[in-house]
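Duplicate of earlier report; gibberellin 2beta-dioxygenase input re-posted below.
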Amino acid sequence: MHFAICSSHFSYLNTPNFPPFITLLFNLSLFPLFSSAFFPPFKRKEETMVVHSQSAALDHCSLIKTCKPTTSVFKGIPVVDLRDPEAKNLIVKTCEEYGFFKLVNHGVPMEFFTRLEAEALKFFNLPQSEKDKAGPPDPFGYGFKKIGSNGDVGWVEYLLLNTNPQITSLKSLTVFRETPEIFRSSAVNDYIQAVKRMTFEVVELLADGLKIEPRDALSRLLRDEKSDSCFRLNHYPPCPELQALGGRNLIGFGEHTDPQIISVLRSNNTSGLQICLRDKTWVSVPPDQTSFFINVGDALQVMTNGRLRSVRHRVLAESMRSRVSMIYFGGPPLSEKIAPLASLMAKAEESLYEEFTWWEYKTSAYKSRLGDYRLGLFEKKTGGAAGQ
Ligand SMILES: O=C(O)CCC(=O)C(=O)O
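Output:
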């Protein structure tokens, strides 16, 4: 497959000292773990049609799944204003109902987003051979079409980064010694730091709304210096060949839930994101580059004993416009036990899940396909667990 590639090169390479971002950037490969970056499917019949080169034009998308066209736009998208005195209750309500909401008035300057988007596009517009030097993802690094190592593919290229600058991957350093400086460190750092601060506030409000005590029971996991959080930049190039699919949609990023506690997504103004409602219908989320979209992750579902539900979502490719998205996945430290929070449990309420650590969950998820219902393996057999 070959994505449309522009010829921009980095002019600011060859810096003798690695900028901090480079260290931040591929540092990651010491942990054979991942994020929602990890992967793969649920045998959803409606999505099992695979593009087998119906025409030469479609060779680019061969083996990528398609799905039936979905025309419904999510009109009632829940919106939370972070400065609204009622925000804590709204967050709880929408996370119970959808596991998803749009966040406005969040205080993160637009400039952070536009700078990072520009840096990301500089990278994604490099020749393929240059980008490949930053891959294959292990799971961190540059990935192209392949999502994870279990056979999932999508119309996407991405950079998966660890957010912990303490962890340095030799491979990453090597990669970047041989290639131009790709990002200005400040663009990534400023964005991640600002998004993290905002996320801490969101989960503390959520804790207030749920009457979780102490109120930092969730945020401390994300603030922890060993927090296993990561950051992903996705690029979905336009796919003009889509017309040849006879009205079907091409999958950019296959359906999945995010395994972490919470994910915070921002994209440019190109559509593509869809979420699955409780009645199993897929709805398109209108893009809004000024806002964040927040997803409940699997770990938060467990910590609330199924009261909040992780949201199944996916991205469809667009024929004319490229989509750029950036997602912060807030996860706990690897050794953290993931179990319902005591202050949330009613008297005699039992956990719906077996006890496990974040490491165990990731290890298990790593072996799964993107769309698998990964929590299924950890549900107690008796007790009518939350299920999907
Ligand atoms: O690119 C998007 O908008 C969402 C991607 C996503 O779900 C992911 O990277 O886990």
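Residues 36, 232, 234, 253, 258, 265, 267, 273, 313, 315, 325, 327 surround 2-oxoglutaric acid (CB under 6 Å).

Merging into the original ticket.
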